Amino acid sequence: MPQLEIPDYAPQIFWLVVTFVVLLGLMWTIALPRIGRVLEQRQKHIDDDLSEAEKFKQGAEEAIKAYEASLAEARAEAHKLLAETQAELDKQAAEQRTRLDAELADKQAQAESRIREAREQALSSVREVAAEVARAATERLIGVEPSQDAATAAVDGKG
């Protein structure tokens, strides 16, 4: 085998070193700068994307804060409106209750007056009927018909 012959080692090592130096030079001058530029572009693109993502994140956080502030304001307004409405309803209910109480008191007074009149009329009728019954009973029992005034006085307990 020709690789294993000792006199051929020197030229093989020479060409190995020459080829290595040429390939190293090509790699150093052409390939490595291109790879470096690609890596730098990628890193720049990644940094730009991260910067843009951070801006979007800050924008989203500001939008969330604005939304929460708006929501808190809307809730406060709703509570205020609810309190005002409740106060107005309470006021209307109190006015209506007062009006109804006055109407009921008036109707109660009228009813009591009618009951009193009916009672007096009933007592008067009972008194008249009692006087008539007393006259009739006296006439049957003793045969004498008393006067209307005497019978009324007897029923009233005055005679």
Quick recap of the structure?
The protein has 159 residues and is mostly helical. The chain has helices at residues 9-142, 148-156. It contains two helices and no strands.
General description of the model:
Helices cover 90% and strands 0% of the residues. It contains two helices and no strands.
Total beta-strand segments: 0
Task: Kindly provide the radius of gyration, computed on alpha-carbon positions and rounded to a whole number of angstroms.
Answer: 61 Å
Task: Characterize the biggest β-sheet.
Answer: none
Oligomer: single chain
User: What is the beta-strand fraction?
Assistant: under 5%
Order of helices and strands: HH
Q: What count of helical segments does DSSP give?
A: 2
* Low-pLDDT stretches: none
Global outline: rod-shaped
| Helix-and-strand structural type | mainly alpha
Overall average residue pLDDT:
89
What is the percent of helical residues? over 70%
Give the termini distance in whole angstroms. Answer: 174 Å
Fill in the keyword field for this structure.
2 helices
Helix-strand layout with pairing:
Blueprint lengths: L8 H134 L5 H9 L3
